């Protein structure tokens, strides 16, 4: 019997065959469609699909084939009439399949009729190699060969949770791959975008609008990887909540992250607990609090900002009217830092929750916080004695306040207040003396301008000033309240 020299087959499949057998088949047999399954070569998770010029069926990827770059080159050299090639492969190294020049040379010489090329390659960076750069991978794919001659468009991405680098044509239909959150760059720009867009969708920023929450805590992304995310945040307008707890973020990364958030108008919750942020990092976020108009909750527990970092944040919060929640637990904050935060609480009425657990808070530090919370305009009942004095003889309390402030006669001021009250003008001397007190102790108008406070709520303002002077007159003059030893969280309602 003579051997057949050639056999035409349609929709043929080789299962469990080796490379040498497949090369033999490709040389001897003419196929319209060739699909390899369980190809016994080097790596897992590779899909190869060939469509001949006369075959119009839709390709279906199979997840059990694998080829090294050398073997792939050998097989493709035997199919010069190939029109459609689709590859999906998990690689153990960043080999030549990630190189655009490799494909340009192979396609130009061995696949001259190829008009449709789809691929996606994955590489898991288990060694946290900072030299790997999605932008560097994608740059060669912006050449005229890809964009104009073939019109094949390529994107590269860093998948945050999986710590993977992707390189793929877009769009590509690959149902076995999840639509993971990733930092992506493409043929059409030099920047990064944060996206969870399905791979079978074309690049469109409208597809990213549903990404509002990103939880990366305990992912331990650092170095160059965190820079990809930071670069994507510069242009992001959808993210509302970002959690980066336990991510090895230090002061340098904190600086870059803070710079990216300076003008961000959508992020309202930022979690940075259990990182390596010191007082310098706290200073960078203090700058954010001075300019950012969206951030409402900031979590900085279990860092190392210390007294100096607390001071930076306290000064920034003097004029901040957005932030409502700040957690600074376990940051090594002592007396100086607590005192600065307490001074801020006297003027900042926006913060409703301040976490200070597991810091160096003793009786004195707790008293600073108690006094700060008691000095609001409507905190009369925090000091009953002062409240009763103001209720029984308001002109006398006013005169006593003025004498303690600038040395003016108590009796004279008392009479002036009493006489002007008869014609409803007592707010005039009160307004002037309240301003003197504020300037002496560098206090800001609270809760509004002195004119409105003294005219609309004069008695409460007199009692507030009395409590302020009493707290500054020494230990014997402080309000009769018990010190709080452990105050993990201070709440204001």
Q: What's this, in brief?
A:
The protein has helices at 19-28, 69-76, 100-110, 134-138, 144-149, 224-233, 251-261, 279-291, 306-316, 335-347, 363-374, 384-392, 394-406, 410-421, 427-441, 450-456, 458-471; strands spanning 8-9, 12-15, 30-31, 33-37, 46-51, 84-91, 116-124, 154-159, 164-169, 182-186, 193-195, 213-215, 241-243, 269-271, 297-299, 325-327, 353-355, 489-491. The chain is of the alpha/beta class. The strands form three sheets. Strands 2-4-5-6-7-9-8-10-11 form a nine-stranded mixed beta sheet.
Salient structural properties:
493 residues; alpha/beta; nine-stranded mixed sheet; seven-stranded mixed sheet; 18 strands; disordered N terminus; disordered C terminus; LRR_dom_sf
How would you describe what is shown here?
The protein is α/β, with parallel strands linked by helices and 493 residues long. Among the domains are: 249-374, Ribonuclease Inhibitor (Leucine-rich repeat, LRR (right-handed beta-alpha superhelix)), CATH 3.80.10; 383-440 and 448-473, no CATH class. It has 17 helices and 18 strands. It has helices spanning 19-28, 69-76, 100-110, 134-138, 144-149, 224-233, 251-261, 279-291, 306-316, 335-347, 363-374, 384-392, 394-406, 410-421, 427-441, 450-456, 458-471, and strands spanning 8-9, 12-15, 30-31, 33-37, 46-51, 84-91, 116-124, 154-159, 164-169, 182-186, 193-195, 213-215, 241-243, 269-271, 297-299, 325-327, 353-355, 489-491. Helix 13 crosses helix 14, helix 14 (410-421) packs across helix 15 and helix 16 (450-456) packs across helix 17 (458-471). The longest helix is centred in the last third of the chain and has 15 residues, at 427-441. The chain is elongated, with a radius of gyration of 35 Å. The model is unreliable at 1-16, 31-48, 50-65 and 475-493 (pLDDT under 50).
